[in-house]
Design goal:
The chain is mainly alpha-helical and about 475 residues long. Helix content is about 80%, strand content about 0%. The longest helix is centred in the N-terminal third of the chain and has 45 residues.
């Protein structure tokens, strides 16, 4: 074989080997691309928000629009009962507190603040009782049936409000609404059913967005009705009440036709008596703080839940009282009309919605606790500024700080709590958590209203703002499992 022939063979052999190597490399690259694509798809499926969450968002929004409509109307309604229910329940209550009122020097015009606080506390006290029972029943019979019953009850409460020509009927309407307000905790349980650790923060942020939008649009609707209503007539609030009932009935139909059951039969609690007894344990305050109704969790998880529950309670006790009396502060100190109040709610609601839609729902799990802590620190100057405000500009500054804080705190704390417990326990865990919040909201408004009524708004808000440092430091020191 000649030298030339050998060279040709070597060249051909080299080309063939290079071609083979190139093919192998291309095949490996393709395989790697497929693996990466499959991994990306799997990660996308894990982090994607479940469609049911968006349905719950719509249901919550309808509920909250109806619920928040009354906020700018409440001071005017209580003034209406003050003038037109002299011989009824309002007049009787005013006479009952007259001696103490003269003792502390509280102005009679602040009686509406006191009665409003009592109504707010009653509403939340009923939520405190009902939420765990509704959560326990949903663990047994499924989420959807209990949601429907709650929604029907809420619609009935607005129907009563439409015909509440005296204060007694109005109190009855609020009573029925409070008894039916177990739907929020069930909505939280549904979201927990269909989400995981990777996407639960986004889902809970959507709940926060629903609350923000509710507090944007609802008060505006109520204010528009108030502006064009003839308040000299005995039923000037009939139209907004009927409108609220229409929204509630629309929510009932939406749940029936669109929302699917999120808790399969095989994952439901089988021990009915035990589940209900645990739910009733939620009404026992010591058992509530110990999360006694939640079984089979590790000591570390139970300890974390108890710590979160305590922080949540202390925070909401102070926060809810100051939040509730803001409407009366605007009405009595700044002479705000219903439209002026609606503008304030619009401002705070837009800020909360923007933050929750752009920041809070994208928070990674590792930043949830620190975000809650930052939000808690911000609420302290917010309420102090509101307390010392003498101009609308200062009031707006305090309420903007309030909105930024609120956008983070409750959503982040709910997300932290929702990771504890198995599928059949989620309704119970979140039911206990909501009950703690309802208990705080049952006590906060009446305590803050008494303080507002007896010592004035300035001291009430400054002291309340300083006291909020307690839950802030507690949350900062928590080491959650």
């Amino acid at each position: 074989m000649t030298y030339t022939t050998m060279s040709v063979i070597k060249k051909r052999s080299g080309l063939t080997s290079s071609a083979i190597n190139s093919n192998n490399l291309a095949t490996e690259a393709n395989q790697r691309e497929k693996v990466v694509a499959q991994s990306s798809k799997a990660i996308g499926e894990i982090t994607r928000t479940h469609p049911t969450v968006y349905l719950i968002f719509v249901s919550l929004l309808l509920d909250l629009l109806a619920f928040t409509m009354i906020l700018p109307l409440l001071p005017s309604m209580l003034e209406f009962y003050k003038k037109n229910d002299v011989g009824g329940l309002y007049g009787y209550l005013s006479e009952s507190i007259r001696s103490f009122q003269e003792l502390v020097g509280a102005p009679q015009r602040f009686n509406s603040v006191l009665f409003g606080g009592a109504l707010g506390s009653m509403y939340s006290l009923l939520q405190f009782i009902v939420s765990p029972i509704a959560g326990g029943l949903s663990d047994i019979y499924g989420r959807k049936p209990v949601m429907i019953v709650c929604a029907v009850g809420i619609a009935a409460s607005y129907g009563l409000w439409a015909y509440s020509h005296n204060f007694l009927l109005f109190v009855l309407a609020r009573f029925v609404g409070g008894v039916s307000k177990g739907n929020i905790s069930i909505c939280m349980a549904v979201i927990t059913d269909v989400s995981n650790h990777q996407n639960r923060g986004k889902a809970m942020a959507l709940v926060g967005i629903a609350f923000s939008l509710g507090f944007i649009v609802g008060p505006m609707i109520g204010a528009i009705f108030s502006r064009f209503a003839d308040k000299t007539t005995s039923h000037w609030f009939w139209l907004p009440a009927v409108f609220a009932m229409g929204l509630a009935l629309l929510d009932v139909m939406f749940i029936v036709t669109c929302v699917k059951e999120s808790l399969p039969r095989e994952k439901r609690s089988k021990k009915i008596i035990n589940t209900l007894s645990h739910a009733i344990d939620h009404i026992s305050i010591p058992a509530l703080f110990k999360f006694s109704a939640v079984q089979n969790l590790s000591k570390r998880d139970i300890s974390s839940l108890r710590s979160l529950g305590l922080v949540y309670f202390v925070y909401l006790f102070i926060y809810s009282g100051l939040e509730f009396t803001v409407t009366f502060l605007m009405y009595h100190k700044f002479n705000y009309t219903s439209i002026d109040q609606a503008k304030m709610f619009l401002t705070t609601g837009v800020i909360m919605a923007l933050l929750q839609g752009s920041v809070v729902r994208r928070l990674p799990q590792r930043l949830t606790q620190i975000s809650a802590v930052c939000g808690l620190y911000l609420i302290i100057p917010a309420f102090i500024v509101v307390g010392i405000a003498e101009t609308s500009q200062m009031l707006y500054l305090g309420m903007i700080l309030f909105a930024i804080s609120t956008a983070f705190v409750v959503t982040c704390m709910t997300t932290l709590t929702s990771k504890y417990g198995d599928f059949h326990q989620k309704g119970t865990v979140l039911g206990v958590f909501r009950s703690l919040g309802a208990l705080a909201r049952a006590l906060g408004p009446i305590v803050a209203s008494i303080a507002f009524w007896s010592i004035g708004s300035r001291i009430t808000y400054i002291v309340g703002g300083i006291l909020l440092l307690c839950p802030t430091l507690m949350m900062q020191r928590l080491k959650l499992s």
